[in-house]
């Protein structure tokens, strides 16, 4: 009896196994098709990133419109983040408040309709009516259209108007065609055919106006938030390319016979703000000593595994007002120790930390973990500062805003995109000026405030760059911030993928150049 | 029974009021709100833009006014719109539900396929090497967190053997297998131990000894008496599993890109999408109350000694 019973339960087990094996053994169903399909995995597309959709007039959705080749702006950023015409042919600055933009004559939306001055006017009017940030950035008073040109009159001097129009929200769409199922009609090489919170399916825009025609029949953009899943999906060949792979996974794709990598230094900087309300940090010698003790090379090479570039100021080397245009104190532990001594700090009790008036130099370091680089920077800073006798109490928490609001920090490390529009004013005005919204260190210098006002009214890229450099240098001389590194964005793809190139602006990923062998 | 069901449904009202007020309050205890999270993730905007957004969403109003307004909406069937997508939250949850239900059904099927025979074998062969192996495996299965099982399965079944896809896709039915297996590992381990325990308990009862002494075959005792008596335990386990699985297996759904309710809830929490979170909380409370009610009714049918409503407060 026992044997028959055992046979019965074993039969049940076998049945269960059979169910599973049937699932496993099916093999991949590959449809015999000559369609060129490209599947792209990215951590950057999702509802929680506020960019699910294609209508650039909604919050941050424009990033999707432009990144995946659905929409294009009047001007675009070159590799050095300077502007060049895109849908526009050229422009004339009529006066301080008025600019006339002439459009190329051969541009059509993906529905075949010609892009005229009227169409651009309608789009920009819808933008300032519906978008949350655009009205404040653009300060548009009126728009007039005539043939292939639009004239924009601003309420006040807006020297960076063209830069703001090149923000992803400035993608030109056919507003008359409207939005159906989260799909809008753009001018890009690809057209969205289905949009969900996690995936966008695109097809070739057969009417694309550009000289280089799109080559792929279908593109599937999958938002994959988990880094391990993204890694294994690329390893398993389910996706052709990936954006946002964890640094620890990069070495899995070092085999150049199978994978290729495209990298670009972006303007996302990892910075540390000194809190000027902290008595110990009001001494510039202390701030400078701490700045000199941060090992940027070690941080980027070892901890970021080469996925970052040591920073000097807030902008990357590729920009005219970035990189070596300014100077900061070099990594020098002995020099830092000497400065601390000058400031009156010495290790009098032999506990390994410098002290003054019987009190150790002990600082609270606040940061957050949602960007993988920041906890690493905290570790690096803590280890480096210990070498000069400064004790850093690290607090890396998702709840950092509570601590920040309560002023419970002496140093605050964060990540920030400093030049989203290629213009320096955005970062400088929000960080360096007295009482500015992102000036978490409460830094204040009247000279800086005056320079800020000058920049706000200055026209011309060269003049603005010069002013920006002066402001950056002043902040560095005041040791208000430490700029640790710039993010090096990486796109990793299977061998045979062509034309997928990381861009310093982080805007342009899928273009008409993209191809798959 | 009707009276009992109505009474249980009426209990839902204070439960919903309590937990929604609690979750509403907890979300607002943090120093950042939906608007802060929304903008800070992407860059600097002026306080004016943030204030305008807060006013638009009603976040500038006192806590109780916000709660009252939300509750008023719920009563009239309006669950509100997502702060992020701008779409009705009920629609968002309903569009994700089929995927969650599919994952739940497949994972429970897999669990039963493994756990029922293994639990019975382990009980029948108590103390043998087979029993020890099964108990060890169920201990291991119980100990491993879901994300670890998921990564192991992906590594071996997808990356190494290329048998199954990593990512969920409605176009490929095989994509449900790995997330379901992940859930089945821990559920199966729990079920196996529970089934073993209850079968052992039943096998030790007088009626089994009586049946044996009357010459009733072991197979008949096992199938007709012991298994039937064990069904109450099984229903309890299933009720708990169905309840939690219908809320979505957040980690598993995220890892496998399974577009279900759990993943939606995690994203809503990360974005402080209050209307979506609140609706999710209501959904979970509703599911647990309903599933437990169904389980209680099933107990009555499986074991007529169980009287509905007796001792119920």
TrEMBL record, chain A:
InterPro entries: Peptide/Ni-bd (IPR030678), SBP_5 (IPR039424), SBP_5_dom (IPR000914). It comes from Schwartzia succinivorans DSM 10502. One of its GO terms (cellular component) is periplasmic space. Residues 82-437 form the Solute-binding protein family domain. One of its GO terms (biological process) is peptide transport. Keywords: Signal. Residues 1-22 form the signal peptide. This is Peptide/nickel transport system substrate-binding protein.
From TrEMBL, chain B:
Keywords: Cell membrane, Ion transport, Membrane, Nickel, Nickel transport, Transmembrane, Transmembrane helix, Transport. InterPro entries: BPD_transp_1_N, MetI-like, MetI-like_sf, Opp2B. It is found in: Cell membrane. CDD domains: TM_PBP2 (cd06261). GO terms for cellular component: plasma membrane. Residues 97-299 form the ABC transmembrane type-1 domain. It is a multi-pass membrane protein. Gene3D superfamilies: MetI-like. The chain crosses the membrane at residues 9-29, 103-124, 136-159, 171-189, 231-252, 280-302. Its main location: membrane. GO terms for molecular function: nickel cation transmembrane transporter activity. Pfam families: BPD_transp_1, BPD_transp_1_N. The complex is composed of two ATP-binding proteins (NikD and NikE), two transmembrane proteins (NikB and NikC) and a solute-binding protein (NikA). Belongs to the binding-protein-dependent transport system permease family. OppBC subfamily. This is Nickel import system permease protein NikB. The lineage of its organism: Bacteria, Bacillati, Bacillota, Negativicutes, Selenomonadales.
């Amino acid at each position: 009896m026992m044997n028959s019973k055992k046979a019965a339960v074993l039969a049940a087990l076998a049945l269960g196994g059979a169910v599973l094996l049937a699932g496993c053994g099916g093999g991949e169903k590959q449809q015999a098709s000559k369609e060129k399909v490209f599947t792209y995995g990215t951590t950057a597309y999702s509802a929680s990133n506020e960019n699910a959709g294609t209508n650039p007039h909604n919050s941050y959705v424009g990033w999707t419109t432009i990144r995946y080749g659905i929409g294009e702006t009047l001007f675009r950023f070159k590799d050095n983040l300077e502007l060049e015409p895109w849908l526009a042919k050229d422009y004339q600055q009529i006066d301080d408040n008025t600019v006339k933009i002439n459009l190329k004559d051969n541009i059509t939306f993906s529905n075949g309709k010609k892009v005229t001055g009227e169409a651009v006017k309608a789009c920009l009017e819808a933008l300032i009516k519906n978008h949350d940030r655009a009205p404040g950035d653009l300060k548009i008073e009126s728009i007039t259209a005539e043939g292939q040109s639009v004239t924009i009159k601003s309420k006040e001097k807006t020297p960076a108007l063209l830069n703001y129009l090149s923000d992803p929200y400035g993608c030109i769409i056919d507003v008359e065609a409207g939005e159906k199922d989260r799909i809008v009609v753009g001018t890009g090489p690809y057209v969205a055919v289905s949009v969900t919170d996690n995936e966008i399916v695109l097809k070739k825009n057969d009417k694309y106006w550009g000289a280089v025609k799109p080559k792929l029949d279908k593109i599937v953009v999958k938002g994959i938030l988990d880094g391990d899943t993204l890694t294994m999906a690329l390893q398993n060949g389910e996706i052709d390319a990936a954006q946002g792979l964890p640094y620890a996974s990069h070495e899995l794709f070092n085999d150049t016979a199978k994978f290729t990598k495209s990298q670009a230094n972006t303007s996302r900087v990892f910075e540390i703000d000194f809190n000027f309300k902290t008595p110990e940090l009001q001494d510039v010698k202390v701030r400078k000593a701490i700045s000199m003790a941060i090992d940027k090379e070690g941080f980027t090479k070892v901890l970021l595994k080469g996925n970052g570039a040591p920073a000097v100021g807030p902008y990357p080397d590729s920009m005219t007002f970035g990189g070596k245009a300014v100077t900061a104190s070099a990594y020098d532990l002995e020099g830092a120790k000497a400065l601390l001594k000058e400031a009156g700090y010495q290790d009098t009790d032999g506990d390994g930390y410098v002290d003054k008036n019987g009190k150790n130099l002990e600082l609270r370091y606040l940061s957050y973990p949602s960007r993988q680089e920041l906890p690493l920077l905290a570790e690096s800073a803590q280890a480096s500062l210990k070498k000069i006798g400064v004790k850093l109490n690290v607090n890396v928490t998702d709840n950092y805003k509570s601590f920040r609001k309560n002023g419970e920090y002496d140093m605050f490390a964060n990540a920030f995109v400093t030049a989203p529009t290629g213009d320096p004013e955005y970062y400088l005005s929000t960080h360096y000026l007295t009482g500015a919204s992102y000036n978490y260190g409460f830094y204040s210098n009247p000279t800086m405030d005056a320079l800020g006002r000058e920049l706000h009214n200055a026209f011309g890229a060269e003049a603005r760059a010069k002013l920006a450099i002066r402001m950056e240098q002043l902040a560095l001389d005041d040791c208000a911030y430490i700029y640790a590194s710039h993010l090096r964005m990486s796109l990793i793809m299977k061998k045979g993928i062509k034309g997928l190139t990381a861009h310093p602006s982080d805007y342009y990923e899928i273009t008409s150049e993209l191809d798959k062998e | 029974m009707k009276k009992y069901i109505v009474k249980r449904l009426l209990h839902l009202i204070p439960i919903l009021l309590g937990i929604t007020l609690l979750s509403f309050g907890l979300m607002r205890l943090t120093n950042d709100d939906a608007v802060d999270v929304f903008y800070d993730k992407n860059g600097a905007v002026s306080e004016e833009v943030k204030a305008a957004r807060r006013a638009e969403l009603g976040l500038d109003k006192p806590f109780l006014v916000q709660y009252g307004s939300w509750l008023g909406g719920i009563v009239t069937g309006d669950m509100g719109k997502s702060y992020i997508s701008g779409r009705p939250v009920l629609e968002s949850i309903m569009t994700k539900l089929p995927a969650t239900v599919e994952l739940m059904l497949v994972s429970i099927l897999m669990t039963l396929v493994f756990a029922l025979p293994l639990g019975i074998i382990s009980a029948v062969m108590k103390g043998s090497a087979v029993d020890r192996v099964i108990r060890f495996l169920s201990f291991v299965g119980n100990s491993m967190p879901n994300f670890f099982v998921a990564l192991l399965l992906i590594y071996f079944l997808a990356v190494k053997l290329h048998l199954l896809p990593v990512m969920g896709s409605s176009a490929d039915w095989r994509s449900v297998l790995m997330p379901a297996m992940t859930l089945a590992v821990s559920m199966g381990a729990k079920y196996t131990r529970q089934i073993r325990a209850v079968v052992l308990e039943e096998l030790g009862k007088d009626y089994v000894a009586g049946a044996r002494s009357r010459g009733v075959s072991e197979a008949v005792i096992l199938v007709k008496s012991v298994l039937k008596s064990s069904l109450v335990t099984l229903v309890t386990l299933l009720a708990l599993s169905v309840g939690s699985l219908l809320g979505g297996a957040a980690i598993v759904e995220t890892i496998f890109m399974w577009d279900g309710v759990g993943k939606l809830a995690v994203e809503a929490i990360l974005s402080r999408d209050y209307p979506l979170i609140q609706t999710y909380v209501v959904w979970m409370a509703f599911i647990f109350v309903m599933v437990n009610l169904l389980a209680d009714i099933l107990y009555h049918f499986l074991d007529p000694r169980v009287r509905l409503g007796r001792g119920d407060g």
